[in-house]
Amino acid sequence: MELSSMAMRVPIGVHNIIRRLQSSGFQTFLVGGCVRDLIQGKEPADFDLVTSAEPEETESLFHSVLDVGKRFGTVMVQHEGISAEVTTMRREDDYRDARRPDTVFFHKSLSDDMLRRDFTINALAFDGTKLFDFTSGLRDLHLKTIRCVGDPDRRFAEDGLRLMRAIRLAAELDFSIDSKTWDSVVNLAEIICRVSRERIRKEMERILLCDHPSVGLALLSASGILQLIIQVPELENVTLKSVDWGLVDQMEKVMVTRLAVFLLLLFGMDCILSEGFTHGGKEPIRGLLTKLSFPKRIVTPVVNLLSEVPRLPCFKDSDARRIVNRIGREAASQNFGFFSAAGALLGYPSEVTAGWVSKIQQTLLNDEPVGISDLAVTGHDLIEQGWVQGPAVKSALEYLLEMVLDDPEMNKKSVLLAHARRMMIME
Ligand code: ATP
Ligand code: MG
Questions:
Q1: Which of 52, 224, 260, 373 is deepest in the core (most CB within 10 A)?
Q2: From the CA of 34, how far away is ligand 2's center (Å)?
Q3: CB-ligand 1 contact for 172 (6 Å cutoff)
Q4: Per-residue pLDDT, 401
Q5: pTM exceeding 0.90
Q6: Contact present, 121 and 35 (Cβ < 8 Å)
Q7: Nearest C-alpha to atom 15 of ligand 1 is from which residue?
Q8: How far apart are CA 412 and CA 404, in angstroms?
Q9: Ligand 1 neighbourhood includes 33 CB (under 6 angstroms)
């Protein structure tokens, strides 16, 4: 691997942050994911630095420095249009002896810093010229292996989040997990129950949005972690290990779509189609997602999508309008893949599911009436006609909407008012 080509891929602003710290006498290294990405020839998403400078010393060297965790030694340096997180290397007291030569002093503290990291591929440091590898991380990067730094049992016991990180990294990078590390993941799976729901959810989101989520989902179920995260009575006696998650990979990288398809596979069609599963009752999916700390903007469209599945087996044109009515235009336009996936799981050939999708697309494109606000009459029109303001008007509009959903040709003021008049006489 060419160190010079690695250096060339570091943005000039980040180089200049490193240089300024180094020329002020502070050892400074790029660490973590960005070094991994640089070695793999990828564009790093963000840059993490460790330095021997104290946060105050870093602050004094740059105009714009934000406190993002100064108590733990981390500040964010903004320089020449780029940001980098700069963390002070933790130095053990032994190494605070100023008489020791700098190289020894800092090498020791850099190695300490690296040895505290989770996996060998994350424990590489680059100072702009030289690569520092205390844990054979480079070998593991070439072997495409996730391996704990040190004893896996100890490292997972220290921090259960590392279980999810191992699996998420394996999925994101398409790496395998070293057998000793994997044995530990399986043996210590229960530790996941000590990790906060938010952190689990964040890792889960990253797994779902990577190129091959099925890799991560298979590892989560094979390790037993998935069963521990998702504890609902409906899945108590279900074996998840044999589930094929491949359908999730085929979905667009849209959180709602991927999460909804994951849940289709997790619960299975029989469960999803069963009475009261998605609405009108205990709604286990809403409860589960809320417990996992998914925000409402994700939970609501996912539950809505799953609620529409029972409509699919006898899909008519009017169902396309009802689907758009129930899930909203935005969710409908972003989730065509969900309906193809659900159709495939229900056993329909792709020509059939493509027909459903094209009808939903047509509904959106033609701006077909799908809601009360699309009706050619308003509540005021009905009140002028003699309806008493209040719930009766609302029910009348809902009734008219049902008619229009069945047949959009009915959406004419005169036709709807005539129907409304007949309804009033019948009441
Ligand atoms: P990405 O930014 O793509 O998620 P990353 O490897 O940079 O990947 P971060 O979460 O940004 O991940 O963490 C930066 C580095 O901090 C990691 O590479 C790793 O060295 C270390 N690290 C993060 N979380 C842990 C942890 N739970 N235990 C030990 N080391 C960790
Ligand atoms: Mg990072």
A1: 260
A2: 6
A3: no
A4: 95
A5: no
A6: no
A7: 32
A8: 9
A9: yes
